[in-house]
Fold this protein.
Amino acid sequence: MKNLFFIFKSAIDDFGRNKIRTFLTSLGILIGVFAVVVLIALGLGLKKYISDQFEAMGNNTLFLVPGNVLSGGGFSGSSSSFTGRFDNRDLETLKKIDNVTNAGPLALKSSKIKGLLKEDFGDIMFSSEALADVMGLEIEIGRFFDRSDITKRAKVIVVGNKIANDYFGSGEDAIGKKMTVGNVKFTVIGVIKSKGGGGMGGFDYDGYLYGPYTTGYIFNPDKKYLRLIAKTEDESYISQVKADIKKEFMKRYEEEEFSVVEPTELLSAINSIFSVLNLILVAIAAISLVVGGIGIMNIMYVTVTDRIKEIGIRRAIGARRSDILSQFLAEAVLLSSFGGIMGLGLAYLAVFAVQPFFPAYIDLASVFLALGISSAIGITFGVFPAKKAANLEPVEAIRYE
């Protein structure tokens, strides 16, 4: 234990004499650990955010979408137009299925929108009163459109929090005001409580406008919908309702032309994609760790050359090869650990800075991974120069100039 204490104390003393070199050598490890930990934290935050969005919908929701989405078919249609497969006949079929308590269509339109303070291109989502329940949208001010608005084809809209602030200054100022979508004037009747962007299917809830699907016929004369949404009374009915929907829609469509999916299935598919992407990004960031390790190896080789006489004297007064090996290996490990700890500290600061805007977080596994990787790099890349130092003959080392 005393020998170990001496080895690490000697290494720290040497670093103190060469502060700039110590910092520059550790910089590669610092950057690598910082990048890896931050990317993992962002990936964990993104998974949490998506999970929260799907949880808001509940476990008793189903989506009817074009294509075989869970086997690589992808979503059909475009968010900028009404090119869709489903129509009112499909909507009525969905409503008549046993244990479906609420159902509605989903159609999207991109257009120029104009408010009191701003004019820009934006997106409006047309649906039924079921949308708020299905998507977990909460009203902050005013109200959501109801069945009466749908029956009357009322020109009313509910706006996301961001839209209210950007186009009117605040939610209070938006209520009752006119907003132009294309050439059609709508009255703002409600403002959605902020949910943040990146929700289900890529929707930025705060940046959307929401209106009755019947009013949307102004832009959608063919009355086609991108998706249909259904809510059951309880999640225990999901399996049966899902089977019933498939059975009914198979009477009109081929099996590969539509999918009935639960939010949990979509969540699983999305998480799988993000896991692969995050792994690739972390692997790219880890390249800087290898570069940092090579930097440590190079500096340690230089250090061995600079200290050949010192090594010779130590060997001459009784130091064993294992002592010299331990000395230089300890220095390499300390160098990489120093970079790892600094990188971890900077990663914590970066994650703390983005947390008000995004739910990124660092878990315990990331901490152990960062410190473990940095220590392993020190050992791996420190072995070669440490062996070179240990294998020096005392007489030759003392004579070295």
Summary: Residues 82 and 221 are 9 Å apart (CA to CA).
